[in-house]
Amino acid sequence: MVLWREYPKGECNAAHGGSYTAGPMFLSTLRSFNSNFGIVAVLGYLGLFVASFLLMFLFPLGALALVFVGIFGLVVVVPLSAGAQALERAMNRRRLAAGSCPMCEAGSVRALPEEAGGWECPGCGTAWTVEGSVVPS
Ligand SMILES: [Zn+2]
Fold first, then answer.
1. Residue 122 Cα, ligand 1 centroid: separation in angstroms?
2. What is the mean pLDDT of residues 38-67?
3. Structural domain that includes position 122
4. What number is the average pLDDT over the span 110-130?
5. Mean pLDDT across the stretch 68-83?
6. Span from the CA of 82 to the centroid of ligand 1 (angstroms)
């Protein structure tokens, strides 16, 4: 499992600069985390609902505490989601600037014309915006 890979200086693209770059497994894990984040958050809140419904009869103060956990949990959940998406876009931009596709790891991406912006991978057909997010097809 390669989480981080060190590119030797001179051997790799100048965008890497011999610094640490996250491995493909970390990026694919982050991508699946971001794409499934909505359903995981909904299931978490449904679990809180079921727990607080049961606690209403067993320990009413626990149900009241879970209400506040649900409300103030948004303070954690929303920045966590935004931060993970921003990290994924930054990692995508770094790979695209180095000329490799973040999705299929193969081939060389080609930059789209200036007015369109972004990149396109001839291998897997994925299009990327300038910000590093996937263009929905
Ligand atoms: Zn590709």
1. 7
2. 92
3. 26-128
4. 88
5. 91
6. 24
